[in-house]
Amino acid sequence: MKYDIDYYYNLLRIQGKTGEQIAKIRWNFVSGCAPKNVLDYGCGIGFFGAYAPKGVKIESFDIMPVIQTAIIRHEYDLVTLWDVIEHFTDIDDLRDICVKANYVACTIPVKPADLPWKKYKHWKPGEHTTYYDPEMLELLMDGFGFKLVKSGTPECPPREYIHSFLFQNVNPYGKVPN
């Protein structure tokens, strides 16, 4: 998949109608961890940061050619990985992002068991490199030193087959068990 300016404009066109709604759902989902500084990793076109509550400092990073701050801090109250984890090809890179945070919030697409892969709307060979189910994701994050705080499907609707997770670092700010 080529994450270029055409991809960016396609996202803007597709997500423009629901971007605000999803951003508000996501802020509600993470409200319990009361973040003051957030890294929106894989920020896409920036809806999450655009709807940040007053007083929350947002830093953003994406591989697309979008306006972003880049990763500036070594520590964050919250790192978000909205629609990002399934794109990682190297688990070490994912861990390196997660350990910067006290909390990690993420979404993953989860295929219903009775739906064939080729009919699954999130089946995107070449773009999605890894598919997790909720238990696999929880085990992965446990290996990074995080415990599950909350999960569910608050984005459904307007989205379909998307699960949300909030994890807390049991060894905050980079102290991952070996």
What does this structure look like?
The chain is an alpha/beta fold and 178 residues long. It has a single domain, classed as 3-Layer(aba) Sandwich (Rossmann fold). It has helices spanning 5-15, 19-30, 47-50, 91-98, 134-143, and strands spanning 37-41, 57-61, 76-81, 101-109, 146-152, 162-169. The protein has a 6-stranded mixed sheet with strand order 2-1-3-4-6-5, with helices on one face. The longest helix has 12 residues, at 19-30. It is globular and about 45 Å long.
The gist of it:
With 178 residues, this protein is an alpha/beta fold.
Q: How many strands appear in the DSSP assignment?
A: 6
Number of domains: 1
CATH architecture: 3-Layer(aba) Sandwich
What is the H/E order?
Answer: HHEHEEHEHEE
CATH fold description: Rossmann fold
Averaging pLDDT over every residue, what do you get?
Answer: 85
Please write the CATH class name: Alpha Beta
Oligomer: single chain
Secondary-structure topology with pairs:
Blueprint: H1 5-15, H2 19-30, E1 37-41, H3 47-50, E2 57-61, E3 76-81, H4 91-98, E4 101-109, H5 134-143, E5 146-152, E6 162-169
Parallel strand pairs: 1-2, 1-3, 3-4
Antiparallel strand pairs: 4-6, 5-6
List keywords for this structure.
6-stranded mixed β-sheet; Rossmann fold; alpha/beta; globular; 178 residues
